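LOG
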Amino acid sequence: MYSQIMTGALLGIESYLACVEADASNGMPGFEMVGMLNTEVKEAKERVRVALKNANIHLPPVHITVNISPAHIRKNGTAYDLPIALALLICIGTLKAEELEGHLVVGELGLNGEVKFVNGVLPIVLQAKEKGIKVCLVPKENEMEGGVVAGIDVIGVESLADVLLYFETRRRNETGKFSPVRINVEALFSDEETSGPDFSEVAGQECVKRAVEIAAAGFHHILLVGTPGAGKTMIAKRIPSVLPPLSIAESMEVTKIYSVAGLLREKESLIVKRPFCNPHHTISEQALAGGGRVPKPGMISLAHRGVLFLDEAVHFSGPAIELLRQPMEDKKVQIARAFGTYAYPADFMLVAAINPCPCGYYPDRNRCICTQQQRKKYLSKISGPILDRIDICVEAPKVELQDLQDKKAGESSKQIRERIERARLVQRKRFEGTGLAFNADMSPGQVGEFCVLGKEERTFMEKAFSSMQLSARGYHKILKVSRTIADLDGSPEIKVSHLAEAICLRSADRQDDELR
């Protein structure tokens, strides 16, 4: 007897529908599986056979053939176990084919018949809804994740026995314990906690906080240069607190990435806070960019719509730093394998922190013992092309005693965030219909359109271009940052004062040849 079950599979962070076909026929007893399958998929036949036995369902001595289509796409993962089991139950007459019409099934099976957590349920449910599927049967641990998708019934099951009970209750037109999961997405965002590290805890460093505010408003990349203990890491960890909350669409994007990577916590439905990724400097290139035998998102993609913080950036390997070049420009990571090319989104705000020299105390010659050659070698680990892609570079000076003893609290993250939200509202109106979101996203042509300079401002930039020996990219970076400063000031035009501040925010990487 022939049967087929609809299931879902992953291709990068996107999903496609796959069909599990099963046929049980007379002949030499056996269990064959075809369809361009990886090892873990081929092993499903043993998991399914034992899981059915332990659920008191015995397969007759027949020849079983299972095909997973489309056959030209390589299949991996363990989410095919449950659909294979249900296809076999139809073949032996335990279930009827019409009972599974309009259903999509995913889930890994334990040998005891337990249905286990799988990766990527959110993109699979989204794809199922798009293709007109009415019901998704998913592992109980994944039901909250799938339940955020409106317009489709998501049912969580714990075991094969649960699945059989589900179809039995449907035959009796009962719901029982199998009510579709409904997640109030808007309530998740309204319940978001705002507690955490706050900028009011940062003593002094007003110039650095101003630079961070500008960077957050326009989603610009920023480099912090300063001595040990100046507060670079402390400030960086508070940047998410001044970023506006994720929108529902952004939250879906981020959650899909974490779902595919298998990093959603049990019973977690949506990620409602902007990611903050702080990899250790020993991270490999593959872990940073993503990849593997079965490609998965790397740290760059996990920081999508949030912050990627590289503390002590010069200690990261040269190749790891250099692979940031393309994602910083293209907002995505492409990974090519023999059996396909995967694209992962990577629209992140890079925040890097470094010391000015190996000992960390330059230019204090009472404490710094580094030679000019040592400084040059140390700082050259961040190449010119990477520095050129960083919009803002600011020095974090040593914190003075009077700042530490000052009992008056500084501006809170909430106050800073309100200004940033106003600036971002201006950007949304400006870029409506263009596909852009932030000033940092503008192409050279769009810079010319949206960063129009007056006569005085053009003269000022001509002098700056010549004296600072700017590249074309550096010139455009200054205009983008000045546009953000003008937005924070509520000014429709870019003025000389805005250009001057933007230039100052790049002066730290031009003060020495070593930082160029």
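LOG (cont.) second protein
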Amino acid sequence: MSNQKKQSFLGGAAILAAAVAIVKVIGAVYKIPFGNIVGSEGQTYFNVAYNIYNVLLTISTAGLPLAISKLTSEAHAQGRENQKRKIFRTAIWLFFALGLVGALLMYFGAAQLADFMNEPLGYWPIKALAPAVFCVCLLACMRGYTQGQRNMTPTAVSQILEALCKLFLGLTLAWYFLKLGMGLDIAAAGAILGVTVGTVLSMCFLVVYLLTHRDRGESLDVPDRAGALMKRILAIGIPITLSNSAMSIITLIDTKNVLGRLRTIPELADSAATLFGQYQFGMNLINLPPSFVYPVTMSLIPFAAAALSRKDHAGAGRIVSSAFRIIATLAIPAGVGLSVLGGPALMMLYPRQQADAMAAGPHMRWLGIACIFICIMTLTNAILQTYGKERIPIFTVIAGGITKIVMNYILVGNPDINIHGAPISTLCCYMVIVGLNLFFVWKYSPEKPHYIQLFAKPVLASVLMGGAAWAVYGFVNRALAGSHSAYGANAIATMVGICAGVVAYAILVIALRILRAEDVRSIPHGEKLVKLLHLK
């Protein structure tokens, strides 16, 4: 791709960060209309299939594309065009084999996998998702190849195309199948079919892109043997794959564990799918804030890596502290807000599934706080990777996952607690991960972060904000009770409560001087915010 304009490192990272943010927001937004269409039971069938898919996807695509990107980048920098082509030709066959095995396993083993997950009605959703494994594997190889040439645009476009297809086609098929009188498992399969079609279209886009942007120029370099390249790809990719696949495997086991434990309680056996789906209603909502936190993390960490490469430990320490302050300023109020108003928000967002939304409300008290730890986990994992400690997150995630599985087995299996134990174990899981991560970040940071100073003010401001939001919500809801429907009164009160919380928190951020000018300058359009907020 010699005629292609090279993108700068930060420019490419910004493109990819923006695409990831858009994809995550689309994915989070998708769950709200989907939940309204299929309800809690349909969500369970969807999640059973998607969790299996996610494990196969992570194993086959988490680390290997990064290995291809790294090797391609090295060859690209050296001008070794034949080496680049040999890397791609070698890798594509590896991904072809991985994708084919994964797709066949899901398609022909759908019944066995559904039984393994303690949800036989997951059969059709699993089958509908099988082809996506094959397509995504090939997608991952092509994305790694283009990223290795410092071209992030094809990856960004293909990811957004995939997410949009999932959003529009998946929701349309789910709604249409239900309108035809089909079961919730078939509706969930329709929604998942949108994911499959999205991967097919994205793959076609990248194939066309590579064919039309192929560099046909001659090169004199002699490429390495295919066997040597394969060993290098696996040596780089396998450790990263182990790190990223740990949480997917734990989530899969956890889903099986919760459904299995619910079915051991005689009076709840028939409603296990509904109860688990209600818990997923809450999980859908707490996944929104990390979608916005992730691109902030991606935009900050490269600066820390650059400072470390220059041996500027003080500069890296300042960047890490800024990252903590920004994430704390965003994540803590979001989590407190979800904990306080999460139940009313679910009632507002799911008008067609009011019973499920009401049942999911109590879960939000725990899951809102868990959201804070999910955001901090994302940041601390990135910091540890920046410090060259990529393996530590593997063990901290495993420790948190074991905590979650053990607590779910004990709590969910208790008839008096049942599904209400799931959000408690989720909170404890991420608390364990973050506690360990914070220790290791402190241990390996050349400039030790002062956690009390970083978190004390955001916590205080968030607690005061939560109290204000709850008080305003309660007052408005009671005032409107006689003149509006229950749904209308709750929706208006929720929006007013959220606005009151935002205003209260903004005032407290300025009054308590939570953010510094250096923190805000490091994010997009930060200089304008510094002037607007009169930060020093």
